[in-house]
Design goal:
- The chain is built from 5 helices and 5 strands; from the N terminus they run αββαβαβαβα.
- The radius of gyration is 13 Å and the shape is globular.
- It has one domain: HprK N-terminal domain-like (Udp-n-acetylmuramoylalanyl-d-glutamate--2,6- Diaminopimelate Ligase, Chain: A, domain 1, 3-Layer(aba) Sandwich), CATH 3.40.1390.
- The chain is of the alpha/beta class and 116 residues long.
- It starts with a helix and ends with a helix.
Length: 116
């Protein structure tokens, strides 16, 4: 499933334009602890976090995440989004909680693999 397909399936808001929307989203990870993400996020993952500071962009770049997803329609500063665009990192936002988004992403990704 591509990031674009995930955006459509979950009705996510794209905050960084067309960046990485055609990239594969093969897994997901939900955590707000940067060291945990560095140690455990998988390949081609979308990362769900409530963190909204520039350090998450460094982690996303380091781990080559497909997209960062911000839950609960939390606000982001334009300077953060400008830096994300500059770094080529897709930032998405959804109205649901991190818990709900995690479940929806899991279901969308496993359905795409034929997993029940």
């Amino acid at each position: 499933m591509t990031v674009r397909e995930l955006v459509a399936a979950l009705d996510l808001e794209v905050l960084t334009g067309d960046i990485n929307l055609d990239r594969q989203a093969g897994s997901g990870y939900t955590s707000d602890l940067l060291s945990d993400v560095i140690a455990n996020i998988g390949d081609d993952a979308v990362w769900i976090t409530i963190q909204r500071h520039v350090n998450i962009l460094g982690v996303a770049k380091l781990k080559d995440v497909s997209a960062i997803i911000i839950p609960r329609n939390l606000a982001l500063e334009e300077a953060f989004l400008a830096k994300a665009r500059e770094e080529g990192i897709a930032v998405l936002r959804g109205s649901k909680s991190a818990f709900e988004l995690s479940a929806l992403i899991y279901n969308a990704l496993t359905r795409g693999r034929g997993v029940a």
